[in-house]
């Protein structure tokens, strides 16, 4: 059975062009770019090219790009460095809907004595800007806010926010892992000090990522070791993966238009069909400011996990809005922060598309979803006479 893969916000297929570019750097050109000999040095040239390609995707200077092992490391590095750069400040700001790579780090910092403002979102997942602006003080060391949400696709107005944080001399980090390759990112227009992207969300391999660090900000390393990355990140470079990341960023730039036309149309088509054909269904997240590839949709009176299991049998890979950590079926912190009603938060599914998806696949999903939801509702104690009770 062919797989219909619509879980691209979790991870993506490595593009053929990326694999092709990486392969020689395992068996053939395996040198260490820090070595004195030409053999190693030639790998360094390809790493340099990759740095340029990553920089180009976000309109940065290559010297502002540091390679890391994952989006999580980029996020942690940025926050850690900001706190070291502002040692006297004890207040930090983030939102209630961040990825665990930021959210859980902030929880640790709170335990260590930092005062944290967790900015609210409204029922559409939009940031409470008034609360955010009021919370910025002379004691605020860093603000970390995601560019786009991984569960709902909601886009935060980073440009507008950074104009305010810059005024108050507060360091600003954005987790742009989901935004990269889906919306235009131009660091020359947006006053972020640091910005994270991750390879495996944009058709590069898992285990490679980048952190943009604005020129002039002296970043203390998180990974302390050798002089790699100009002393900003120790550890021998994951050369093949870095070269893959560079290629993936180049492709992402080329595919940006397609993402915002063809892929957006596929997503909109899937959304329209599901809303039309399945009663008591609703979209989670601001439809106006949303990634072109993401659809989070809730179905009253059913459980996301049950939907996923039934879709799995049809070869459809999606994801639920609820994270079943420790066996308890709690709705995700993102949907809870949005105060999505419990019974539709429970029945929420995330479809996240890529340039590899087709119209036929969207029809296959709709054809599987309609009877699936019907069958689950027939068994649900919360569903009677065509509505939720
Ligand atoms: C996937 C993801 C991360 C983590 O990236 P890894 O490379 O898996 O560590 C961070 N933030 C967001 C928004 C993500 O979607």
Concise structural overview:
The chain is of the alpha/beta class and 389 residues long.
Give a structural overview.
This protein has 389 residues and is an alpha/beta fold. It has 2 domains: 4-10 and 255-388, Aspartate Aminotransferase, domain 1; 16-251, 3-Layer(aba) Sandwich (Aspartate Aminotransferase, domain 2). It is 40% helix and 15% strand. The strands form 4 sheets. Strands 2-8-7-6-5-3-4 form a 7-stranded mixed β-sheet, with helices on both faces. It has a 4-stranded antiparallel β-sheet with strand order 9-10-13-12. Helix 7 links the parallel strand 5 and strand 6 (171-175). It is globular. The two termini are 38 Å apart. Pyridoxal-5'-phosphate is lined by residues 70-72, 75, 99, 101, 146, 150, 175, 177-178, 198, 200-201, 209. The site of pyridoxal-5'-phosphate (PLP) has 15 residues, from helix 4.
CATH topology of the largest domain: Aspartate Aminotransferase, domain 2
What's the CATH H-level superfamily name of the largest domain?
Type I PLP-dependent aspartate aminotransferase-like (Major domain)
Overall average pLDDT: 95
Number of strands: 15
Radius of gyration, rounded? 22 Å
Anisotropy-based shape: globular
- By oligomeric state, this entry counts as single chain
| Helicity level | 25-40%
Bound ions, cofactors and other small molecules, one mention each: pyridoxal-5'-phosphate
Which band does the percent of strand residues land in? 15-25%
Strand order of the largest sheet: 2-8-7-6-5-3-4
**So how many helices?**
12
Q: Ends: how far apart? A: 38 Å
Q: Spans with pLDDT under 50 lasting ≥5 residues?
A: none
């Amino acid at each position: 059975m062919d797989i219909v893969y619509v879980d691209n916000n979790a991870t993506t297929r490595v593009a053929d062009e990326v694999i092709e570019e990486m392969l020689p750097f395992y068996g053939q050109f395996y040198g260490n770019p820090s070595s004195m000999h030409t053999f190693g040095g030639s790998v360094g040239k390809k790493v340099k090219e990759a740095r340029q390609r990553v920089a180009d995707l976000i309109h940065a200077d290559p010297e502002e790009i540091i390679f890391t092992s994952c989006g999580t490391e980029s996020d942690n590095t940025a926050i850690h460095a900001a706190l070291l750069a502002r040692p006297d400040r004890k207040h930090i700001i983030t939102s209630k809907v961040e990825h665990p790579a930021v959210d859980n780090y902030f929880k640790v910092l709170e335990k260590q004595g930092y005062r944290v403002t967790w900015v609210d979102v409204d029922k559409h997942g939009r940031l409470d800007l008034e609360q955010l602006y009021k919370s910025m003080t002379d004691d605020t060391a860093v603000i970390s806010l995601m560019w786009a949400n991984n569960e709902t696709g909601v886009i935060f107005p980073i440009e507008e926010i950074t104009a305010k944080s810059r005024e108050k001399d507060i360091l600003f980090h954005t987790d742009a892992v989901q935004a990269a390759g889906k919306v235009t990112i131009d660091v020359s227009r947006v006053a972020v000090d640091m910005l994270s992207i991750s390879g495996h969300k944009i058709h590069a391999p898992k285990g490679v990522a980048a952190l943009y660090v604005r020129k002039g900000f002296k970043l203390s390393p998180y990974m302390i070791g050798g002089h790699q990355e100009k002393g900003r990140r120790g550890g021998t470079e994951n050369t093949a993966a870095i070269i893959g990341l560079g290629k993936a960023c180049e492709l992402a730039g080329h595919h940006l238009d397609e993402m915002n036309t063809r892929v957006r149309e596929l997503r909109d088509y899937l959304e329209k069909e599901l809303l039309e054909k399945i009663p008591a269904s609703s979209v989670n997240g601001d439809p106006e400011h949303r990634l072109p590839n993401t659809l989070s949709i809730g179905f009253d009176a059913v459980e996301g996990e049950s939907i996923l299991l039934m879709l799995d049998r049809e070869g459809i890979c999606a994801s639920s809005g609820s994270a079943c950590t420790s066996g308890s079926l709690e709705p995700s912190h993102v949907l809870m922060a949005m105060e999505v009603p419990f019974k539709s938060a429970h029945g929420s599914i995330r479809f996240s598309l890529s340039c590899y998806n087709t119209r036929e696949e969207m029809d296959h999903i709709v054809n599987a979803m309609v009877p699936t939801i019907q069958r689950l509702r027939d068994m649900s104690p919360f569903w009677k006479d065509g509505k939720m009770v």
